[in-house]
């Protein structure tokens, strides 16, 4: 996804991250992944705080990864689609659905608020939406880098026949991850869609546990207009200027499996690249990542793109 790659840089003793450095359009970019096997809001917050020690002039960060979709008749979200956090009437685009208190009759009440994405990214989202309405998105252009034989099987569209949305009340049958034993009569009827991913904007629900229960997914979809569930964003929103971009790899129910994860991660990264290309570059003198780190006195900015590992 990078237009150019830059050499690695020395890091402090207290920064355990591994970075890929490069350029997308006019922006110097730092890419970091969550540690293997570690998920959740605290892990994401640790990665971001260590990153800012090494790159203190970071301007903002699209947080890119995968999530579980919450489709409805109004929002026909499918596997491989992209969901982007956008502020609504009652939230900043991300809610922490597992943070709150239990009140009378065992009812859970969510509490606390999370910050909106920075204005520069929200303005870029508006500009990109307008561009897409006129001429469509260009995700396929970025996804073409995965056309090599070694990558194509995992990082390309996985087929409508493998995109199965079951009724929310119907649980997965058996211990195997695939749905061979599941009752196809319990599939939700949907019209066949284009293989091109669709981009959706709205509320993303973040928590410290994997959502894999269809009825709970539906409750949050109806109560908070949630489009997607994930596990890292709430750890960043109040401490880091970011927007959340998620490729949909499952439907946040018990039928969850890993088949779509790589393709979903790729579609989210492709959207992040398109978004960065409409964000104006820094007004400071151009610099490589190495110069940006060394020359903080000239306020040379480094932009951030974080990619989280599949769940």
UniProtKB/TrEMBL annotation:
InterPro entries for this protein: NLR-like, Nucleoside_phosphorylase_d, Nucleoside_phosphorylase_sf
Domain of life: Eukaryota
Domain Nucleoside phosphorylase: 18-270
Pfam families: PNP_UDP_1
GO molecular function: catalytic activity
BP GO terms, sorted: nucleoside metabolic process
Protein name: Nucleoside phosphorylase domain-containing protein
Organism: Conoideocrella luteorostrata
């Amino acid at each position: 996804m990078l237009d150019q790659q830059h050499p690695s840089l020395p890091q402090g003793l207290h920064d355990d991250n591994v970075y890929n450095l490069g350029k997308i359009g006019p922006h110097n970019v730092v890419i970091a992944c969550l540690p293997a096997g570690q998920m959740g809001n605290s892990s994401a917050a640790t990665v971001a705080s260590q990153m800012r020690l090494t790159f203190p002039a970071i301007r903002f960060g699209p947080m890119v990864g995968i999530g579980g979709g919450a489709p409805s008749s109004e929002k026909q979200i499918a596997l491989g689609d992209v969901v982007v956090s956008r502020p609504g009437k009652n939230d900043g685009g991300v809610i922490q659905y597992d943070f709150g208190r239990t009140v009378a009759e065992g009812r859970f009440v969510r509490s606390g608020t999370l910050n909106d994405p920075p204005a520069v990214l929200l303005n870029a989202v508006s500009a990109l939406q307008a561009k897409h309405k006129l001429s469509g998105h260009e995700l396929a252009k970025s996804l073409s880098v995965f056309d090599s034989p070694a990558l194509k099987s995992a990082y390309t569209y996985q087929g409508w026949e493998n995109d199965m949305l079951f009724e929310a009340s119907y649980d997965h049958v058996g211990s195997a991850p695939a749905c061979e034993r599941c009752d196809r009569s319990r599939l939700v009827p949907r019209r066949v869609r284009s293989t091109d991913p669709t981009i959706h904007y709205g509320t993303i629900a973040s928590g410290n546990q994997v959502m894999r229960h269809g009825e709970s997914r539906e409750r949050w979809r109806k109560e908070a207009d949630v489009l997607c569930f994930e596990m890292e964003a709430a750890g960043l929103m109040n401490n880091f200027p970011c927007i959340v971009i998620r490729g949909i790899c499952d439907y946040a129910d018990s039928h969850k499996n890993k088949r779509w994860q790589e393709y979903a991660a790729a579609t989210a990264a492709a959207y992040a690249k398109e978004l960065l290309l409409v964000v104006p570059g820094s007004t400071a003198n151009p610099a490589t990542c190495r110069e940006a780190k060394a020359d903080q006195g000239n306020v040379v900015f480094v932009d951030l793109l974080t990619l989280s590992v599949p769940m």
